[in-house]
Amino acid sequence: MGAESWWRNTTIYQVYPRSYSDSYGNGIGDLPGIISKLDYIKDIGFETIWFSPFFDSPQADFGYDVSDYYQAAPEYGTQEDIYKLIEEVHKREMKIVFDLVLNHTSDHHPWFLESRSSLDNPKRDWYIWRDGKGKKPPNNWKALPGGSGWHYDDITGQWYYASFLPFQPDLNFRNPEVKNAMLDMVAFWLDKGVDGFRLDIFHSIFKDQKFRDNPLSRHFIPRNDKAGFFQEWKYTVNQPETVAFAREIRELTKAYQPERFLLGEIFASDEIKRDYLGQDQAGLNLVFLWDLPDARVTAKDLRRVIEKYELNFPDPHFPVYVLGNHDRKRVLSRVGGNIHLAKLLAVLIFTARGIPVTYYGEEIGMIEGSGPIKDCLDPVGQRYKNVPQFLLDALDIYVNRDGCRTPMQWGPGKNAGFSSADGDLWMPLALNSIEQNVEVLKESPDSILNVYRELIKLRRNYPGLVDGKLRVIKAPVDVLAIERVIPEETIGVFMNFSSREMHLEPFGPDCDILFSISNAEVNSEGIYLPSFGALVISSK
Ligand code: GLC
Predict the structure, then answer these.
(1) Quick check: CB of 61 below 6 Å from ligand 1?
(2) Higher local confidence (pLDDT), 222 or 344
(3) How far does the centroid of ligand 1 lie from the alpha carbon of residue 294, in Å?
């Protein structure tokens, strides 16, 4: 494995800059604010921090619409602040991962302004422009959040393509100038010491060269890998050129020491995801897997997820264990506010074989914000403003992403310690900030925050939790039990997802208890798990 592959045993924490910490007192998080909180992240034990974009942007999609890949958005700070952030993360011996939005720019990016200005502008071919079919778009391609992906532009009478929202025009990666401009930017940040990139909607980078219509499908509700809005995403995502491009970016990162890494946001079947990683490991280092955040939180369903991850991403691949992010419902709200279940999920992601990723606030049990969809700021949510909430709930589609982006809860005081602003925060606080915040939880030994801290420490102290083979062990239906095996020891992990107490067979002769929730223990009869209890034990 080698010391250079640090990312194989790292733990990742995701910061959403707008919501982390406001040092200017204007109700919006910023870079100096984040820097002032790095000790907190270090103290929990995380080794790598991924930052959602803080680059200059009109903020129509809160930073996922970049207008300058080299400058910070003024409300977040300056380019100097970005350099300082890199330096301060490194000073604390952590790694820093940037969020790379390669697929599209903002429609305010100077490249797009030029490109749209005339048919013969030198940057015309930097984006994807086509003639329509009469008054209709060039073909039937739909955008990922629904609606046609094509947008008519009056200036030249042609249509441009956008995989996401209309103000996020897709770059044309078939044009070598575009590819080089983006790779130069990647190299710029690698030279500045950035340790890796999370690649935003990477599966969309190339579209079919012949612009063939996508086939129809029965599925309206988008599915992770195949279809949505009654169309199969055959020609708009996961093209062979995109898989090849993954290898090309990896080639670039390979030239750097210490080793850098690439983590792709990919929506595809596991088979295709493996292609992005490459049989020879020469593609992306890691890809996000979505079975866990989509799964029902029962021992049975989670067991199935682990088995699928192990089957489809065996060693030397590493599954990525993520519970939520800035696009998904807060995990605690997903489990009906049951903090015990949130703790058990933490046990799972830090003891399974893979890379755990924690979205800010999961470690303190933040819940969804409660703003109604009609007032939402999220541009995806705004498209569904007129759909009644009960219908969205019934269809179980999450479209108002404001809910998972509320300000970080630092303390019980004013603005939960996020900001000193007297006016409105950019986004109202979630309703549990008085009870669930860093200040209160750090004092309580069995709080979720301390569970996170202990689990990360455990991972660091017991190599079996990182390198060990994973086996799912037989257990009562409501108990999820796994073991991690290295030649020197076997570590057993037992999680009771029910409110009933459970008694299990003994686990090997000489057992040491490494970690326990709710006084789960080993006694003369075997393993005792109280309601929602968990136990990690080692047997030599
Ligand atoms: C990704 C991001 C999401 C963003 C979209 C467009 O899915 O996670 O927040 O809106 O891409 O860049």
Answers:
(1) yes
(2) 344
(3) 17
